[in-house]
Amino acid sequence: MKLLFDFFPILLFFLAYKVFDIYVATGVAIAATFAQVAYSWVKTRTVPPMQLVTLLIITIFGGLTLYLHDEQFIKWKPTVINWLFACGFLASHFVGDKTVIERMMGASITLPEPVWRRLNLSWVTFFVIMGSANLYVMSHFDRDTWVNFKLFGMLGMTFVFMILQSIYLSRHLQESSPQQ
Q: Which residue, among 40, 41, 44, has the nearest Cα to 6 in the 3D structure?
């Protein structure tokens, strides 16, 4: 369910693009991201840092797209966000006592530190690949293909990654279950 909530602005962007154009879709994505952050705030009185970063980047790159009437800015947004997340996850290996992924999931599951570190590095790799894939598609294909990739390709890549992550975690959770 959280995955669908995270993809809500992308879905609305896609629908607005199909009905109108890239500029209306950009405005819709900005508004949807603001709504997403507001919903999180109303529901929990907190906003996850990843949502705040996404809001900042969509506001900057979407705003530049609308102001300069240049679609290249909104096309760069997924790459910038994914690479910023990759940097943040990687930095957590050197700053603080826990990696980002352990901070996010540590209350739900118990894993040995090496597993947390490998899991965190897999997220770094995932974000680098996602950003690179966006860059490749935006540079080598037309706008329609990029919009379809932004929804279906990135959602598909995320779904596959989550399945692989679940398989990896299940091996380690089974090993640590008797100890708990």
A: 40
- Written as one letter, the residue type at 43 is K
In this structure, how many other beta carbons lie within 10 angstroms of the beta carbon of residue 44?
Answer: 9
DSSP conformational letter for 47: -
| Residue found by looking up tokens 């508004």 in the block | 31
Angstrom distance (rounded) from CA 119 to CA 122: 5
Distance between CA 78 and CA 146 in Å, rounded? 11
Instruction: Spell out the per-residue pLDDT of the chain, length 180, in tens.
Output: 565 677 889 999 999 999 999 999 999 999 999 999 999 999 999 998 889 999 999 999 999 999 999 999 999 999 999 999 999 999 999 998 899 999 988 888 888 889 999 999 999 999 999 999 999 999 999 999 999 999 999 999 999 999 999 999 888 875 544 444
Q: What is the pTM of this model?
A: 0.87
Dig out the tokens for 92 from the structure: 């957590």
Residues 163 and 152: their CA atoms lie apart, in Å, by: 16
Tell the residue number behind the tokens 């597993």, with chain if given: 115
Q: Where in the chain are the domains?
A: 2-179
